[in-house]
Amino acid sequence: MPELPEVEVVRAGLAPATTGSLITGVSVFDERALTRHAAGAADFVGRLEGRRFTDAARRGKFLWLPLDADDSALIAHLGMSGQMLLRRPDAAAERHERIRIHLEHPQHGELAVVFADQRTFGSLAVDRLVSDGPSSVPTQVVHIARDPLDPLFDDARFRQTLRSRRSAIKRVLLDQQVISGVGNIYADESLWAARIHPETSASSLSTPAVSRLLAEVRSVLAKALAEGGTSFDAQYVNVNGQAGYFALSLNAYGRGGQPCPRCGGLIRREAFMNRSSHYCPRCQRRR
DNA sequence: GGGGGTTCCTGTACGC
DNA sequence: TGCGTACAGGAACCCC
Predict the structure, then answer these.
(1) Mind listing the pLDDT tens digit for each residue in A62-89?
(2) A183 neighbors A77 (Cβ within 8 angstroms)
(3) Domain A4-141 adopts which CATH fold?
(4) Distance of A79 CA from C12 C1′ (whole Å)
(5) What is the pTM of this model?
(6) Closest nucleotide to A78 by C1' from CA
(7) Of A165, A188, A246, A255, most Cβ neighbours within 10 A?
């Protein structure tokens, strides 16, 4: 499941191959991969061919490759199972290949960026860039909060928002308009590390507890990033198709019924928001 | 505008 | 062996 660390690994992998590259051709095999591009496949292709990528940027789980000549960018959201793969231009089709973008790089020569996506929750689009403080972001990303690894993330504002929310803290952590980049896996891991029950009302958390939680969110994300992200199956891989190793470091997520690494109590798995929460009922006490 | 539930999708695992 | 069903979850969307 691509969350911030996985998307950042993909962005960093794409950057050296795509930045400066000329887009020589675009093939759309499945228009469901363009749900974020309302004008359709022909328009999408027309806005890319003949242009060059100038950079590779990310906010939360969105990544985008700005284009030359005007203020637009190719944006990508990987959804649950989206992959951006670097391949030779004549490489055989991937199992769930939706879009292939052919590139000519000044040093590396011809290559292809393949967007493959099993569950089709991901999407590409060409979007206009608009100013947002010192940087510019696609219009579809403007409403997304900065992520906690962003130097401009506003800790004070985050604390203030939590004070006004009576929702469960886990729900607030998953709200990309409050803090971006955190998904189900890293929400569970951060709450476990901060010893906070996922159903705790956000507004009931003390200031020290919020600070502890934010520090753990940053720590978990940074560690996962250093280990190449979390892979359970073939659903998340880097641009070369390789898995990450953070799944070996998980303390709560996916460990229902197994002993808590901290206290030895059994990790509980519960339904929450049409998904699962994993926590230790002994060291994450409900208030 | 907060709160919380629903929907989209497909491959895999599992029970009968 | 084969079928039906539950499950995985990001983000937009809906109604209260």
Answers:
(1) 999 999 988 999 999 999 889 999 999 9
(2) no
(3) N-terminal domain of MutM-like DNA repair proteins (3.20.190)
(4) 12
(5) 0.95
(6) C10
(7) A188
